[in-house]
Design brief:
The protein is built from six helices and two strands. The chain is mainly alpha-helical. The protein has one domain. Strand 1 and strand 2 form a beta hairpin. It is elongated and about 80 Å long.
Length: 178
């Protein structure tokens, strides 16, 4: 099975598309503040990117042009990484996108009503709770991320196996020649 760069790029592209859609909804909200449809779209997209854009605006300013440049640069970088011959790049890009999506969902869950509260016990006996919003859209994003992660692992291991087989054939040829 050949590696399919478009499948490797799909999940990072989804995460970047969600970031871009939230910025577009924020821009439309500024243009049409009385529109309930724009408010609804913005509120649906906001949990995926709330903390990220707040941090970007703290360090780089609140410009939509900077936001667009970040999204375009990240999209181009992810596409080039997924097209690269080395397999570690797409592996890291997909895992970074999955961690980013999980972090955004976890951070934004504290501002909304939590649908699941998990209690954990640390070995010294201290109890703490983790509240996450496992809504349909959050669960869908995380499931797509896990599927992309699994595809990356299969592709990475398959390519490693092919490289090992090629190396074994070359070693056998050298042994035979010696």
């Amino acid at each position: 099975m050949m590696r399919k760069p478009i499948l490797l790029f799909a999940f990072p592209a989804l995460v970047l598309l969600l970031l871009a859609a939230e910025r577009m909804a924020a821009m439309l909200l500024g243009a049409y503040p009385a529109s309930p449809a724009v408010w609804h779209a913005w509120l649906e997209l906001r949990p995926f990117s709330t903390m990220f854009w707040q941090q970007v605006h703290v360090y780089l300013g609140g410009s939509m042009a900077v936001d667009a440049a970040i999204i375009v640069f990240a999209t181009g970088a992810c596409w080039m990484i997924c097209q690269a011959k080395r397999s570690a790049g797409f592996f890291l890009a997909n895992h970074a996108a999955l961690l980013f999506a999980g972090k955004m969902i976890a951070l934004s869950s504290h501002a909304e009503t939590a649908s699941t509260i998990a209690a954990f016990t640390i070995p010294n006996g201290l109890h703490f709770s983790l509240m996450l919003d496992f809504s349909l859209k959050n669960s869908l994003v995380l499931c797509l991320g896990l599927a992309a992660c699994a595809y990356c692992h299969v592709t990475f291991l398959r390519e490693a196996k092919l490289r090992a087989e090629g190396r074994a054939v070359r070693i056998l040829a050298l042994q035979r020649d010696l």
